[in-house]
TrEMBL record:
Subcellular location(s) per record: Membrane
Pfam families the record matches: Ctr
Family, similarity comment: Belongs to the copper transporter (Ctr) (TC 1.A.56) family. SLC31A subfamily.
Transmembrane segments: 25-44
Identification of the protein by name: Copper transport protein
Keywords: Copper, Copper transport, Ion transport, Membrane, Transmembrane, Transmembrane helix, Transport
Cross-referenced InterPro entries: Cop_transporter
Upper taxonomic lineage: Eukaryota, Fungi, Dikarya, Ascomycota, Pezizomycotina
Membrane topology designation: Multi-pass membrane protein
Gene Ontology terms: cellular component: membrane
Length: 197
C-alpha cells in the first residue's frame, strides 16, 4: 500500500493481502464495492436515527395511554389547565443493547471506510465520495413539517373557493360572452393573487 496519492490499478492492495488487484476488472469491482460500502454506512446511520425515533414514539404512546386510562397520574394543575410536564424516561436494557450494537456496526463500517481512504488511491477515494453522496440521497430524504398560521390558512381556503367558483361559472353558465369574460377575469385575477402568496 502506497502512502502517497496514486491512481494505480493493477498491483494495488487494500486492507489485506487477499485484496490484491490483479486485473483492471478487479479494480472496477473493488470501486463499486467500496461505493456500496459507503452507501451502507449512510444506511446504518439512518437506521440508528430511525430506531431512536421509534423508541421516542413508543414512549410517547405509552405515556399518553397511561394518562388517558389513569388521569390521577397527571399533576393537579394540569387537570384543570393545560400545562406541559417534562418526563425523563430511560430506554430498556434491551433497547440500549440494540442501540449499542447498531452504533458499533456503524462505527466499524466508518472505520473501514477511513482505512480505505488511507490507501490514497484516487479511484477508491472517488468511489467513497460517490457512495456517500448516493447513500445520503437514497437514505436521508429530508421531509419538513411546516406549521401554517391560521390567518394564512383561512386566506388560502377563501382564494381556493373563489377559483373553484370561477371554474364553476365557466363550466355551468351559458356560453354568453359576458359571463365567460367575467369568469375568465375572475380566474386570472385570483390566480395572480394566489401565486403571490
Amino acid at each position: 500500500m502506497e502512502m502517497i496519492w496514486n491512481w494505480n490499478t493493477v498491483g494495488s492492495c487494500f486492507l489485506a493481502k487477499s485484496w490484491y488487484i490483479r486485473t483492471e476488472g478487479m479494480m472496477v469491482a473493488s470501486s463499486i464495492g467500496v461505493a456500496l460500502l459507503a452507501v451502507t454506512l449512510e444506511l446504518c446511520r439512518r437506521a440508528c436515527k430511525e430506531y431512536d425515533a421509534s423508541i421516542v414514539a413508543q414512549m410517547e404512546r405509552s405515556v399518553t395511554a397511561a394518562t388517558l386510562t389513569n388521569p390521577s397520574l397527571l399533576p393537579p394543575s394540569s387537570r384543570s389547565s393545560p400545562t406541559v410536564r417534562i418526563l425523563s424516561l430511560r430506554v430498556s436494557p434491551l433497547q440500549q443493547a440494540i442501540r449499542s450494537l447498531m452504533y458499533a456496526i456503524t462505527f466499524s463500517v466508518a472505520y473501514i471506510v477511513m482505512l480505505l481512504v488511507m490507501s490514497f488511491n484516487g479511484y477508491i477515494i472517488v468511489a467513497i465520495f460517490v457512495g456517500a453522496g448516493l447513500g445520503k440521497f437514497l437514505t436521508d430524504w429530508m421531509v419538513v413539517k411546516v406549521a401554517m398560521k391560521h390567518e394564512f390558512a383561512a386566506l388560502s381556503t377563501s382564494i381556493n373557493f373563489f377559483i373553484n367558483l370561477g371554474e364553476f361559472i365557466i363550466v355551468g353558465c351559458e356560453e354568453s360572452s359576458s359571463s365567460v369574460a367575467i369568469a375568465r377575469w375572475l380566474n386570472s385575477s385570483l390566480e395572480g393573487t394566489s401565486s403571490t402568496l
